[in-house]
């Protein structure tokens, strides 16, 4: 929630996450400000339609490495949906939720990189996120918050050995930042398959959303276009 508040103030421009739990979206961060590099366990993708279905349940219960079919079908084209998870040894290509284009675009012009809680053992394999090809003085200042050692400690401008929650509470207090409370009404997953037949803002299916989902868990879906140009203008982004 503190990151959402920092983004709303304009101090934070973009979040790159290694987590797959969708908590940044639940906290109110818009998709255009987020890259989930390893996918979202609550999102299913239709490759032909380029649609994303947000679910209120774990979509990976029947999937595995190199076997991403979820056995549910797209409402629009009838093709099998796939989870969005990127396992070790795989290379994710989905425009969203991975959003590599957004991550690299913001990394190229960032002046500060704040790493919260990450071991950085995986992210160190992505040198363009750190602008490692640039001269040291041209790279963004790196600040790390972690209880453990990380491979980037020696090049960090500052390393804080503390819990992320404690540090962000201090940051919010120092900046007099009003951290919002979680609001289920703005949670894109809250009623994604709640069975109420409602369509939340940003749904791109139109009438197709009224058809039953193939999961058998309700009538509403949260499918949205995944091209980055469309993501910036979806109604979904406006509710945050």
Describe the protein in words:
- Belongs to the sirtuin family. Class IV subfamily.
- Its cofactor is Zn(2+).
- Keywords: Metal-binding, NAD, Phosphoprotein, Transferase, Zinc.
- This is Regulatory protein SIR2 homolog 7.
- The protein is α/β, with parallel strands linked by helices.
- The protein has one domain.
- 19% of the residues lie in helices and 16% in strands.
- It is built from seven helices and ten strands.
- Strands 5-6-3-4-10 form a five-stranded antiparallel β-sheet. A three-stranded parallel β-sheet has the order 7-8-9, with no helix packed on it.
- The longest helix is centred in the C-terminal third of the chain and has 11 residues.
- It is globular and about 50 Å long.
- The C terminus is likely disordered.
Total helices: the number is 7
Order of strands, main sheet, comes to: 5-6-3-4-10
**Total domain units:** 1
In round numbers, the mean pLDDT is 79
State the order of secondary-structure elements, H for helix, E for strand.
HEHEEEEEHEHEEHEHH
Uncertain segments of ≥5 residues (pLDDT<50)?
Answer: 194-240
Distance between the termini: 12 Å
SSE inventory with pairings:
Blueprint lengths: L1 H8 L5 E3 L5 H4 L7 E3 L6 E4 L4 E4 L14 E5 L6 E4 L16 H10 L2 E5 L10 H4 L10 E5 L12 E3 L3 H11 L48 E3 L2 H4 L3 H4 L2
Parallel strand pairs: 1-2, 7-8, 8-9
Antiparallel strand pairs: 3-4, 3-6, 4-10, 5-6
């Amino acid at each position: 929630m503190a990151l959402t508040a920092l983004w709303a103030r304009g101090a934070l421009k973009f979040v790159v996450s290694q987590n797959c739990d969708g908590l940044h979206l639940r906290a109110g961060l818009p998709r255009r400000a987020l890259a989930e590099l390893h996918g979202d366990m609550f999102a299913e993708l239709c490759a032909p339609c380029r649609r994303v279905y947000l679910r209120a349940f774990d979509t990976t219960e029947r999937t595995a490495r190199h076997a991403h079919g979820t056995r549910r079908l797209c409402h629009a084209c009838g093709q099998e949906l796939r989870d969005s998870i990127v396992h070790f040894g795989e290379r994710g290509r989905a425009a969203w939720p991975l959003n590599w284009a957004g991550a690299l675009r913001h990394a190229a012009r960032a002046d500060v990189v704040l790493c919260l809680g990450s071991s950085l053992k995986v992210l160190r394999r992505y040198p363009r996120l750190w602008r490692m090809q640039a001269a040291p003085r041209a790279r963004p200042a790196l600040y790390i918050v972690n209880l453990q050692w990380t491979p980037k400690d020696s090049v960090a401008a500052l390393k804080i050995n503390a819990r992320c929650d404690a540090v962000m509470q201090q940051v919010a207090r120092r900046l007099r930042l009003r951290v919002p409370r979680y609001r289920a009404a703005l949670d894109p997953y809250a009623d994604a398959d709640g069975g109420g037949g409602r369509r939340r803002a940003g749904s791109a299916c139109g009438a197709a959303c009224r058809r039953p989902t193939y999961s058998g868990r309700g009538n509403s879906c949260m499918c949205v276009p995944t091209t980055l140009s469309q993501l910036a203008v979806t109604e979904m982004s406006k509710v945050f």
